[in-house]
Write a structure and sequence with these properties.
single chain, alpha/beta, Rossmann fold, 5-stranded parallel β-sheet, 7 helices
């Protein structure tokens, strides 16, 4: 995967807990809901430092893109399996893509990956094997 200056990572909770923002040179984004899921004190401390350093930006996706994420999940047949936090991550990815970024979502969640493929968004597995019969790029 060749990355350019326009490449950004959108992180789900698993990616943050795995320490991905510490291991990448890319600008990282996540949602307030994901931040709310990070509860252990060590991870919270690292998260706060990343936010302060601007390596990680916390952005609430607009309601328009939340609706677009719901529609993508409907098309993928994954809607009933996704949490509101998952929908927010997908919505943020769609919004950043619309702003002209090359967006890669870091997630091990199979249903999120399936939805991203339908939405035309790239994904990166963090720790576990992802969907096998799909390619990284839709």
């Amino acid at each position: 995967m060749e990355l350019g200056e326009d490449s950004v990572l959108v992180l789900d909770t698993g990616a943050i807990l795995a320490g991905l923002p510490l291991a990448t040179p890319l600008k990282c984004y996540t949602t307030p809901s994901v931040v709310g899921e990070v509860r252990d004190s060590e991870s919270r401390m690292v998260l706060e430092k990343l936010i302060e350093s601007t390596r990680l930006e916390v952005v609430e996706p607009s309601s328009y893109y939340v609706g677009e994420a719901v529609e993508a999940a409907r098309r993928a047949g994954t809607l009933r399996h996704l949490s509101s936090v998952d929908i927010g991550v997908i919505a943020l990815a769609l919004e950043l893509k619309a702003r002209g970024f090359r967006v890669i979502v870091a997630s091990d969640d199979y249903r999120v990956q399936e939805t991203l493929v339908k939405a035309g968004i790239e994904f990166l597995r963090v720790r576990y094997r992802g969907i096998r019969d799909k390619v990284l790029k839709p």
